[in-house]
């Protein structure tokens, strides 16, 4: 679907329900095809090849995204359209640290202004590219959706890291809400 009005049609279908996120996990409308919308690795949203410059519109779209398997969709109660996501639908762009040691809390803010505290329900993970050995750190945001952690924020995590021996290996990692998250083997 490449109808320029399609994005506005989707926005009009989002129920206006006070606070909280729409219950996209409960909606199961028929698949209506793919729409020319893409989320780049840096978190920029594109529609018909053009960046969406209105932050409130991007924020609203970000509330109706759902991942089923490897596919991403924008979901309303009456419509489900496929979109392209280059890496992760969100980017963690800010880190706030409260406390220290095992009682430390890491609070991330995404490019769409979601605030997420790392912990058992919102784990951190680091994927290593087998060819380049470059780390790609992620934070679970909600329901099968992750945020790529921006490079500057990852450097902050590395600065906060402590070393812990796990299964005979020395891991660098960070604490948040009593959970230890591995970010890499000690060099």
What characteristics describe this protein?
187 residues; mainly beta; duf1285 protein fold; 2 domains; 6-stranded mixed beta sheet; 3 helices; 15 strands; 45% strand; elongated
Verbal overview:
The chain is mainly beta. The protein folds into two domains: 5-85, duf1285 like domain (duf1285 like fold, Roll), CATH 3.10.540.10; 90-185, duf1285 protein fold. Helices cover 14% and strands 45% of the residues. It contains three helices and 15 strands. It has helices at residues 6-13, 55-62, 151-160; strands at 31-39, 45-47, 50-51, 65-68, 71-75, 80-85, 90-98, 105-110, 115-117, 124-128, 135-142, 145-149, 162-166, 169-176, 179-185. It has a six-stranded mixed sheet with strand order 3-2-1-6-5-4. The chain has a six-stranded mixed sheet with strand order 9-8-7-12-11-10. A hairpin with a 5-residue loop joins strand 1 and strand 2 (45-47). It is elongated and about 55 Å long. It starts with 5 loop residues before the first helix and ends with a strand.
């Amino acid at each position: 679907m490449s109808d320029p009005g399609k994005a506005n049609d989707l926005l009009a279908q989002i129920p206006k329900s006070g606070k909280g996120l729409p219950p996209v996990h409960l909606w199961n409308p028929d698949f209506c095809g793919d729409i020319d919308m893409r989320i780049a690795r840096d978190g920029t949203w594109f529609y018909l090849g053009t960046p969406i410059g209105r932050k409130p519109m991007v924020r609203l779209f970000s509330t109706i995204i759902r991942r089923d398997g490897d596919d991403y969709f924008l979901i309303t109660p009456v419509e489900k359209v496929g979109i392209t996501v280059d890496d992760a639908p969100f980017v963690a762009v800010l880190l706030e640290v409260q406390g220290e040691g095992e009682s430390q809390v890491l609070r991330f803010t995404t490019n769409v202004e979601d605030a997420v505290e790392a912990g058992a329900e919102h784990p951190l993970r680091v994927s290593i590219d087998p060819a380049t050995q470059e780390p790609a750190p992620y934070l679970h945001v909600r329901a099968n959706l992750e945020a790529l952690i921006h490079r500057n924020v990852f450097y902050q995590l590395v600065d906060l890291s402590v070393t812990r021996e796990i299964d005979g290996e020395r891991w660098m990692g960070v604490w948040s809400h009593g959970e230890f998250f591995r970010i890499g083997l000690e060099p």
